[in-house]
Design goal:
6-stranded mixed beta sheet, two-stranded antiparallel ribbon, 7 helices, disordered C terminus
């Protein structure tokens, strides 16, 4: 029987935050969620609580991931185990540097990377490499998948870089980043023995149609119609 692996990206953060977390990789930027991020976490929690109860829950030790899981814990009583290897990629000297400052100093390089669909963090002095990131993320995920004859669900609340590292490995992709997961998005992998099948990526239906899981009237984040701005595409939102 398959294991349902749910990889969830944290909600939107407060980009003006200046908090840091000491990790085995170094001192890393550790912002909390902003108001929108907390709303995203509430809507995510309602959806997760209405679906299959997870058999195991793991979470990055970073504040934005822990706060994303909190509403789910409040609804269900299910707590997550913090795992350092699910922490975001270390960006070296760029940790905590505002994106606007990076554009001002490295505009041409950043633009080239964005146009090429390449990871920005590999430009940072002292940053963790893509190979190093996969080397810690892939075994950390695999070692927490139950080997069982019954259906099981594993929930991991983490970061965009971690999600890319694991899924890129499964897909045999050489690039470090191949998509930008939206805040609070769900990415599902079905695991049956050694077989891994990606079921869906970047699912944010709980933001578009929250009443499906809330049981009441909740404001939707879905754009009003063609041509409406898509907040999830904003580059600043897609920093780690």
């Amino acid at each position: 029987m398959p294991v349902r692996l749910l990889l969830v990206r944290h909600g939107r953060v407060d980009f003006g935050a200046t908090e840091f977390l000491d990790t085995p990789r170094g001192r890393q930027w550790d912002p909390p969620l902003d108001d929108k991020g907390r709303d995203q976490a509430d809507k995510l929690a309602a959806r997760l609580a209405a679906t299959a109860r997870p058999d195991a829950v793991f979470v990055s030790p970073f504040r934005r991931a822990l706060q994303t899981l909190e509403p789910f814990t409040a609804l269900t009583g299910i707590r997550g185990e913090a795992v350092d290897d699910f922490g975001e990629v270390f960006v070296g000297e760029w940790e905590g540097v505002p994106f606007e400052d990076l554009i001002a100093e490295h505009g041409d390089l950043v633009r080239e990377r964005v146009d090429a669909g390449a990871a920005l963090h590999t430009l940072a002095p002292g940053a963790e490499s893509g190979d190093e990131l996969r080397a810690r993320v892939v075994p950390a995920v695999e070692s927490r998948l139950p080997r069982t004859e019954k259906d099981a669900t594993v929930l991991i609340v983490t970061h965009g870089g971690v999600i890319n590292a694991y899924l890129g490995h499964l897909m045999g992709l050489p690039q470090d980043m191949f998509f930008l997961p939206d805040n609070s998005s769900i990415n599902r992998v079905d695991v049956d023995g050694d077989a891994h099948g990606i079921r869906f990526l970047n699912d944010v239906a709980h933001l578009w149609y929250p009443t499906l899981w809330s049981g009441g009237t909740v404001e939707s984040d879905r754009p009003a119609g063609p041509g409406s701005p898509d907040e999830g595409s904003d580059l600043e939102e897609d920093r780690p």
